[in-house]
Amino acid sequence: MVANAVPYSSKIIRAGALLPDTKLLLAHWNLSDDVKANLCCIQQENLFGKASRSRVAEILAIFKQRYLGDPQILAALVTLVQADMSATILDPILYFLTVQADPLLYAVVTEVLTPLIGRGQPEIYVTDVRPVQPSATR
Length: 138
Prior knowledge:
This protein is mainly alpha-helical and about 140 residues long. It contains eight helices and no strands. α2 (about 20-30) crosses α5 (about 70-80). The two termini are about 35 Å apart.
C-alpha cells in the first residue's frame, strides 16, 4: 500500500449533494434533543418517504459524516434552515460541507475545478475531470 494514498470511495455516486433531504432533515431537527434521539425520530417517522430502510440508513450515515462532526455547525445549519434562509445563501454552505467531508470531491474541486475557474474557463467538460485515455495502437 502506498503511504500517501488518498482514501477515495465511490459512495458519492449513491449520495450526491442530497440538498433537499438535508434541508428536510435540518428543518425537523430538534436542538433540544440529542443526536441519537433526533436520528431515531427521523428514522421512525420515515421523514424522507423512502421505500427502503436501508436507503434511509445510507442518507443518515452521510448526514452524520457531513454535518454532525461539530455541534456548533449543526446548530447553525438548523437555525438557518428553520429560519427559511434563501437557497442562494444556504446551498453554497451545504455544498462546501459536502465537499469538505468527501476526499474525492475535495480533490476534484481543489485540484481540477478551481484551477479551471481560475483560468476563466466558463464551462467544465468530462475530459477536464477524466484524463484522456491514449488511443490503442493499430
